[in-house]
Sequence to fold (80 residues):
Amino acid sequence: MAFCVTCGQSLNDGMRFCRFCGNQQPGEQLIQRLRMEAEQIRQIALMMSNQQAMQQAQFNAQMQQQQQFNNQQFGQQRRW
Fold:
């Protein structure tokens, strides 16, 4: 099932013209190329997301280490 690129109505696969608005639809070669490009973009976004998650985990670990250091160094001095 495909959708018209102009009006959004559902079309049967392989239709060259929309039966509702009459506009020409992209050919199969263009659709295949766009699908490949979309998959490449999805892969890049996934890699970037994973990289960002790793950076966040490293930052969290560093902050935890800093907090432990601060507690060791200054925890004894704070007596309220």
User: Anything to note?
Assistant: The longest helix spans residues 28-74. The chain has a mean pLDDT of 89. The beta strands are 2-3, 10-11.
